[in-house]
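Hi R.,

As promised, here are both runs. First protein below:
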Amino acid sequence: MITFLDTKNPENSEVLTENLNGQSSDVWTQCLSIIGEKVNPQSFNAWFEPMKPLSVDGKILTLQVPSNFFHEWIEDRYSDLLSEVIRDVLGSSGKINFLVNSEMSDNEPSKTLWDDQDKSSERKERSSSNNFTDIKKDSQYPAYHTSKEKTYDKPVNSALNPKNIFDNYIKGESNQLARAAAYAVANNPGGTQFNPLVIYGDVGLGKTHLIQSIGNHALQNGKAKRVMYVTSEVFTLEFVDSIQTDKVNNFSNFYRSMDILIVDDIQFFEGKDKTQDHFFHTFNTLYQSGKQIVLSSDRPPKELKGLNDRLISRFQSGLTADIQSPDLEMRTAILRKKSEDNGIELRQDVIEFIASNVTSNIRELEGCLISLLAHSSIRNREIDLDLAKDVVRSIIGEIKSHITIEDIQRIVCDYFNIPENFIRAKNRKQEIVLARQLAMYLSKEITNSSLKTIGLHFGGRDHSTVIHAIQTIEDITKSEKKYNDMLQQLRSKIKIGSRV
């Protein structure tokens, strides 16, 4: 029989056989001494000290907990520990029952989770949100026996796209840090310093793919049982719906039960004060229980102007990593991988042409490839360079010169009448240094290659050398007309030498 403690109406409560007597207190004291060796002091003070021993009936210890939220948290995270400890103290048949004090709301977490200021803010939101957490005194949460199946121990529909995995995510210089951090988090959710992990970057650069890869990897490798991916917009809509249907407690408990919570596009929380306040408490609950939080945004947290300071502070407490636009090598690798996935073998000149002209983001690259395949099928044409030019023109309007770094080096060396290998060698003659710097400048201007890639084409030089070359050419062409004329002449020769 399930027993409840109703402190508001004691005449309706079942009389307990022993009220906080010496025996139950002694048993619980023994339990606490064992628990104190197995959990950290913060968890011990927050979750075990507030429980009060009420009775011992044979081999069953009855404990009073302050709220339904508190009880659910204990059941979800510490029932195995409590079962083990009570068997140590009372023998193999020892068990624990919980009684919930109905005077305390199951909608409010214990005071140890959030400070008084935060709770005051939450109360204000309740009063202005159509009783969104109106406490129902007549509906009590049942006090489960510890042998009962845990409420939040089952996997959930994570809303993850199974195609978004690390194996399908092309690595490159533009996403190196973000990818490495994501992989570390996926293998040890909540156990690294990257909590929260915030990935930011412009649209179409693969943020969603990367953050979903974390969830898929953790689930597939048994690192987490409960993972949820949600956009900030969906989270907001669900929150509003929970207010209207008086189910905020269910909404809160669901998201706070996750091992990994992945929230996409947090910039859309801007201006939504009540949603921000609720997410702040969800964030705190997950963080304090060692669960992993993964977020994405189109900007770094400090630039999200419509978010309150305490939320931004939480977002900045872990690791913030950006994803930049892919360089030429990465765009080429992406096109090759995507074409292979579609069973299409593209010619190298077609891949290089598309990669050189479609430079803004990965999504546009994928769209160009899909369009290319469609045109080939509909027009019954082989996928060649001419078809690629037609498709690219239809997408981006203007085609850039299909010029490589090697082409630029050749044209510059012809202009200065020096061997090509000279600008790649460690030659410090003034004329060769100038030619090298002009070639580096034009390579960055025309090919959109990364600084690292340009440096590699010039004898393996460091990216800082390329930066110095670019700055030098910018300075001398502004101050001296002859160098500006020289640059314009080289641009004209490169344009004439273009294959487009």
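And here is the second one, sequence first, then its structure tokens:
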Amino acid sequence: MCNPDEIKPDPIPGLPEELPEGERILWRGGPDWKALALHVFHVRAVAIYFTVLAVWKTGTALAAGRGALDALASAGMVVLFAAAALGLLVLFAWLMARSTIYTVTSARVVMRIGVALPKTVNVPYAVIGSAALKLRKGGDGDIPLQLTGQNRAAYLHLWPHARPWRLAKAEPMLRGVPDAAKVAETLAGALAETAGQPAPRIQTEPAEAPRRAPMPGRAAMANG
């Protein structure tokens, strides 16, 4: 059994140990809980589903000759279930945002993730083949990191901090980051500096765009 007294706090928030000499923090932050609620837990789609279900319940009850009060009571049960489900999803999103710390240093990306069992994921720039920015209208966005060669990460170990549907070769992803364009620019500059390249100019695309905008990392960056 885990002894809480034996759990040591992080020496630096989001980092399991002090930074090596010469390494510096360039940016540190976390996801916006509203972005997680909308784009990870899909609360908007869930709300639409329950709304359609409530309308259908009301319509079928009235079509069957039941009274208006009976029809509304039937729909009311759906509303109660909807409120409970949406409340839980929003709570999960808030807890996840509160327990997540992303750190971009001059040598790596560090992801402090996990609500009940926190864990740290280190992604050195040496294993990042490409990075991209998926920007939304509100300014928040996702930054997936494609790993090179035989470097692998377990999708379930990372979820939801992983690019969706890349199960065979999971890509760690900074999700729902506020002011994502600025964070992406900082990361791209660090990747370019590590590779000995000039800092690139970041081009972004909206989240609905079919392709993502790649950011240079090491010697050459491929489109995702």
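A quick note on the second one: Helices lie at 33-39, 43-63, 68-99, 155-158, 180-195. Let me know what you think.

Best,
J.
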